[in-house]
Structure formats: C-alpha cells, structure tokens
C-alpha cells in the first residue's frame, strides 16, 4: 500500500480548554496542568524531573505560569523544546489570555517593562564585578587566618577572626544566590559559581536552589513559600493567618510574646541548631553526592586551616561562633524584606502584584549594598530573579513609575527601621492572634 500523501495526512485537531478546566487540575493527586503563553501543559510526571525543583513548578499547577516562566528561564528557546512533549492543548479562542484574578493592563505593562530592561542590557552580567566580589571574599578569608597567625589566639584576635569569617560566609551565601538564579549564559559557569558558594558556606547548592526557587515563585504564600514555614509552630505570621489561627483556637506557642522570644530562637539559633544538621539530611536524602563532596571539602579545609592554630576545642569554639554570627546576619537581612509584608494564602494574583505585596526595599547606600549583598533591592530581585544584582538600581526607577501609575505601594526603608519592623510586625500579629483566640 502506498504511503499517504501529504494531502491525505491530517494534523490532529488541537484540544481546547477553558481557564476553569485548567484550574481544576491543581492538586497533588490528580493531573496537574499549567498555562504558558496560552498553551496548556500537563506537568504531572515532569515535576519530579524539573531542574528548579518539583515544588516550584507545582505551585503554579492550575494557573497561568507565563510570567514566572519568563522570570526564571534564561535560554527559553531551549526550554521550549523540552516542553513540547508536555503540551496537551491550548486555551479556547474565546478565552482571554489572562486569568480573571489578574489585571490585564498591569500585566501587559510589566511585560513591556521587562522587555525594556532586556533591551537596556540589564540582564547581562558584568563579570568583572563578580570576579572582584569573589576576590574580596578570598582576601577576608586570608585576613582571618593571618589575624590568628600574627596576633596570636587570645580573645581579641579570636573575635576579629570570627567576625571576618562570618562575613566571608554571608558574602559566600550572596555569591551562591547570585549564581543559583543568575544571568550567566553557560551552564559550566553557573555550576562553578554554585560549587564555590557551597564550598565557602558548607551548604549544598541544591538545597539553596530548592528553597529559594519556591520562595521566589510564591513569596509569603502559606504552604508554598518555605521561608514562612515557621508559621504556625513557632510564630504566627501576618494579619490574615494570625487571625485564622486564633479563630481555630490553635496555640502551639504563646504568640502574643513572639516578638520577645524571636530574639532567642530566631537570629541566634537558625543556622547553628537547625540548618547545620538539616543541610546534611537534605543532601543525603536526595542523594546529591557532588554537593556532599563540596560540603565535606569545606569542613576539611576549615579544620585543616584552624586546628593547627587553635587546637580541637578552640577550633570548635571558632566554628560555632562563626555560625552564631552568621545566623544573626542571615535572619535579620533575609527577613527584613518579607516578615513585615503581606502574608496570606495563594490568591493567584499577577506576578507584579504578588512580588510587590510580599517584598520591600532598604535604602541604597554603599554600606547597605555591601552588607546585604544588594538584597536591599529586594523588590527588583524578586521581579527579575535572573538580573545581575549590580543592575537593580538601574531598573528601580522603572518599577517605581509602574507602581505609581497603578497605585501600588513601593516600600523602601532605612536599614534599622527594616530591622525594627520585623519585631513590630511579630508583636502586631501576635496580638491579633490573641484577640481572635480569646474573643472569637
């Protein structure tokens, strides 16, 4: 039998769906669909193989993921080739290109803003900037060792060394964050940056990517952002969730005092008591053996460098002192942009509104830029997660203009005010919980 001619072969008719049909495929048990540029994809099986982690992509099941797709992926042409096998149809012609919960005009203008930023070259990294940043990390590392070698191991040199090393650690965390969601065009450079950051920090790059991708995908969304997983077992967060907790008569902690015990179980304890063991659990459970090797290299280098100078007890004291100082920095700097902001369940708002309601900035200054690793521009960091951090201040005026046009609050604070707002927000949400607990 002769093969069919091109005229005889017919392309299967595309399947059409409505937004309501897509929204019904959002759970863990049934099929999970999402929409990108009006195309409908079945991600049910793919989530386990998603390079950004299964949860980050699953958080958009049943929703339009066009803007997070644009935000997170650098080589979109390459990614789309892998997406073809997941394609199951598209939105019906009569369906709008945006969901009913989203502002079409704002959505379109933000996409134009992103295109403008790309035309301005703001997604391109200045490699000299990152090279200098890496060199200053290495110089501080050397300075810490020279302090003990030259001045001895008495109390003052010991503390100076601990401060220098904790600064090295937090700057390495910034270096890791820059490369885990980066604008680098080649994979080997990204992996090199992640490995270096992991080696300096003693934590797996895969762990950082796993948590941070979720945080960026759905910031301050309960059960989707791991950065607020301390609710409700340790803290009652946000005005909405705190009242819900009180109405449900749940009391895991005395939340009306949480602004006080935050100083005991928050900044000083997170890294030494929790992350220290959890990162090993994470990497072994997920069989990330390359990450484990980099982690072990950090501990081996650290011990071989300082045990000869301090002895075993002195080395352990230095290690936990560094972790203590690093933990305080980590909690205050990472939480000042989010804990005081709106915290809620996922309401499926547009990308721009989702990021703005969950983040705030800290005023630009040479010290704030360095101290926070440019994360004082948290709004821009969230809107454009692949943008190199040295370009945040350049795109900030465009973001502010868009906020002003649509009446969206663009918050920027002094550093100390941002720190104080963490405590104020915990006190307020704790009182809201108490009022609901006693009177509802």
From TrEMBL:
It catalyses: (8Z,11Z,14Z,17Z)-eicosatetraenoyl-CoA + 2 Fe(II)-[cytochrome b5] + O2 + 2 H(+) = (5Z,8Z,11Z,14Z,17Z)-eicosapentaenoyl-CoA + 2 Fe(III)-[cytochrome b5] + 2 H2O; (8Z,11Z,14Z)-eicosatrienoyl-CoA + 2 Fe(II)-[cytochrome b5] + O2 + 2 H(+) = (5Z,8Z,11Z,14Z)-eicosatetraenoyl-CoA + 2 Fe(III)-[cytochrome b5] + 2 H2O; (11E)-octadecenoyl-CoA + 2 Fe(II)-[cytochrome b5] + O2 + 2 H(+) = (5Z,11E)-octadecadienoyl-CoA + 2 Fe(III)-[cytochrome b5] + 2 H2O. Its EC number is 1.14.19.44. It is found in: Endoplasmic reticulum membrane; Mitochondrion. Keywords: Acetylation, Electron transport, Endoplasmic reticulum, Fatty acid biosynthesis, Fatty acid metabolism, Lipid biosynthesis, Lipid metabolism, Membrane, Mitochondrion, Oxidoreductase, Transmembrane, Transmembrane helix, Transport. GO terms for biological process: unsaturated fatty acid biosynthetic process. Pathway: Lipid metabolism; polyunsaturated fatty acid biosynthesis. It is a multi-pass membrane protein. GO terms for molecular function: acyl-CoA (8-3)-desaturase activity. CDD domains: Delta6-FADS-like. InterPro entries: Cyt_B5-like_heme/steroid-bd, Cyt_B5-like_heme/steroid_sf, FA_desaturase_dom, Fatty_acid_desaturase. GO terms for cellular component: endoplasmic reticulum membrane; mitochondrion. Residues 14-92 form the Cytochrome b5 heme-binding domain. The chain crosses the membrane at residues 127-149, 155-178, 261-284, 304-325. Pfam families: Cyt-b5 (PF00173), FA_desaturase (PF00487). Belongs to the fatty acid desaturase type 1 family. PANTHER family: ACYL-COA (8-3)-DESATURASE (PTHR19353:SF57), FATTY ACID DESATURASE 2 (PTHR19353). This is Acyl-CoA (8-3)-desaturase. It comes from Galemys pyrenaicus.
